[in-house]
Amino acid sequence: MTERRLENRIAVVTGASRGIGYAAAIALAREGAHVIAIARTVGGLEDLDDEIRKAGSTATLVPVDLTDYAAIDRLGASIHERWGKLDILIGNAGIGGAMTPAGHLREKDWNQTIGVNLTANWRLIRSLDPLLRLSDAGRAVFVTSGLAHHTLPYLAAYSASKAGLEALVRSWAAELGQTPIKVNLLSPGQVNTQMLKKLYPGRDLSDKATPSDIAPAVVDLVLPDQQHSGLIYSVAAGGWLETGPPRPIA
Ligand code: NAP
Fold this sequence. Notes:
Blueprint: E1 10-14, H1 19-30, E2 34-39, H2 42-54, E3 59-63, H3 69-83, E4 88-91, H4 107-132, E5 139-143, H5 156-175, E6 182-187, H6 194-199, H7 211-222, E7 232-234, E8 239-240
Parallel strand pairs: 1-2, 1-4, 2-3, 4-5, 5-6, 6-7
Antiparallel strand pairs: 7-8
Helix pairs in contact: 1-2, 1-7, 3-4, 4-5
This protein binds NADP nicotinamide-adenine-dinucleotide phosphate.
């Protein structure tokens, strides 16, 4: 058997009940990581648990709504108590939200999209940063979207949430410069998941990437030998986007 590159590593994966997060969680488990799997849908998490066992690893299932921010704080405390550190954070959970002209967006829809795609990731950073610092090679990846830059009509909250996420993660990366922690963003391109089906109802998506196509890039970004930080990796382009590294304070 080939050496598993994430043996004994503890990984949090959000949005692990289906889609990209589900496939990424299995790929991390195949490399030996113990996966702390977060989402609301218990059935999806239980299916994942079965797949992770088949892959020869283990999972801890955490069925929570990520807009329950106090639960994210409790997650940090529980991980500290049980494992004393965190090696990997995959901030993948996201929603497309309502497709509506910006001026017609209901406050509840705006708040939900920003809440899941942006605020929950900030709360994860706030809760888990101290635990990543206790790892010898803490790694974090957040899933962004080309729509942070190439906007479409009727998806203003989604685009704003992903642009905000990129600014948040790149700022955090700049702050971590003196630590071994590396944090990056991953832009998956169009992937055949429930989210894309909602965006294009009835359209044939069989020519799109599958979640399993994206998972190897997630693994590469969290390997202990990954030295890039504060950058955006585009799966479609097969490389880093031209953003430049985060700058230190002048
Ligand atoms: P998906 O199949 O709809 O999966 C979304 C995941 O997020 C599910 O596991 C869902 O779990 C979880 N989630 C949503 N709201 C949540 C909440 N309030 N609390 C906890 N978990 C929540 O979509 P996907 O395409 O895999 O999306 C994954 C990421 O990729 C997202 O950040 C998305 O923006 C990004 N992305 C996707 C595409 C694409 O073409 N598919 C393109 C660019 C970027 P529950 O519903 O069980 O809670």
